[in-house]
Each structure stands twice: as structure tokens, then as C-alpha cells.
């Protein structure tokens, strides 16, 4: 089912302030930024090994990331796991009684399909599953 950790999403107040630390001090490979309109977020991507770090900056006050920042401040927002078939994975999880935030996939960054599991079933960690290159 899960093939690897795709990325860790970290909510930040400002990409302009945060990017230099990850790129220059930590030496991560900076892959650029992308705005994901549906999620109301601008994302900066860093490659580390087989996985990525995604810095998330809200583009609207009513975005999930803006709400997270207001409640928690900057920090880890979610863990994302890659799957080969997101639709089959969601169907299986739903059949197993897993509480889903998204019962159908939606568009994510890097032309991926994403869906979130409710943190009440994942030990308090917002968990994303994603299918890449779709």
C-alpha cells in the first residue's frame, strides 16, 4: 500500500524567510515553489534523499495552513505517504472504517493526487496519501 514517505509538510509564516535556512544552512536541494490554488497555499520544495520537505505558506486567511499557523504557530503540518493507486487505497481505508477527510482525491502540488486521513485515527498526525505524476 504505502511505497515511501513522499514528504513532510511544514507550515511557515514566510517562504522568503524560511527558504534560506533549509537551502543555505541545512544544504537541502531547493527545487522551487508552486502555488496550489485549491489548497490556498504556496509551497517550496526541498529534496532530501528520496523524500521532500515542503514548506507551506498560506495564500489566504481562510486556508487550512493559515488556521494551523494561528492555532499552533510554525511547525510540522502533515506527513505524506506515497501510494501507487490512491483511489483503491481510499476505497480500502473507507471499507476498513478509517475516518477520511477526503473520500476522493484532489489535485496537489507536482501534478499529484492527494487525500487526507483524519488525525483522530492517526495518533493526532494529519496524514496525507498521494499518488505522484498523475
Automatic annotation (TrEMBL):
Q: Which domain of life is it from?
A: Bacteria
* Record EC number: 5.1.99.1
Q: Which GO terms describe its molecular function?
A: lactoylglutathione lyase activity; metal ion binding; methylmalonyl-CoA epimerase activity
Signal sequence segment:
none
Read off the Pfam families from this record.
Glyoxalase_4 (PF13669)
What are the residue boundaries of the VOC domain, all occurrences included? 4-132
Share an example GO biological-process annotation for this protein: L-methylmalonyl-CoA metabolic process
Q: Which NCBIfam families match?
A: metmalonyl_epim
UniProt record similarity statement: Belongs to the methylmalonyl-CoA epimerase family.
Q: What is this protein called?
A: Methylmalonyl-CoA epimerase
Task: Tell me the gene name.
Answer: mce
Amino acid at each position: 500500500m504505502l511505497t515511501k514517505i513522499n514528504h513532510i509538510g511544514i507550515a511557515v509564516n514566510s517562504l522568503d524567510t524560511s527558504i534560506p535556512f533549509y537551502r543555505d544552512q541545512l544544504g537541502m536541494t531547493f527545487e522551487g515553489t508552486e502555488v496550489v490554488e485549491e489548497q490556498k497555499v504556496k509551497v517550496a520544495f526541498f529534496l532530501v534523499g528520496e523524500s521532500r520537505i515542503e514548506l507551506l505558506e498560506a495564500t489566504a486567511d481562510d486556508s487550512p495552513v493559515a488556521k494551523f499557523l494561528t492555532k499552533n504557530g510554525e511547525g510540522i503540518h502533515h506527513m505524506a505517504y506515497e501510494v501507487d493507486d490512491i483511489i483503491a487505497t481510499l476505497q480500502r481505508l473507507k471499507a476498513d472504517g478509517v475516518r477520511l477527510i477526503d473520500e476522493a482525491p484532489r489535485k496537489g502540488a507536482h501534478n499529484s493526487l492527494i487525500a487526507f486521513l483524519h488525525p483522530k485515527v492517526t495518533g493526532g498526525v494529519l496524514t496525507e496519501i498521494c499518488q505522484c505524476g498523475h
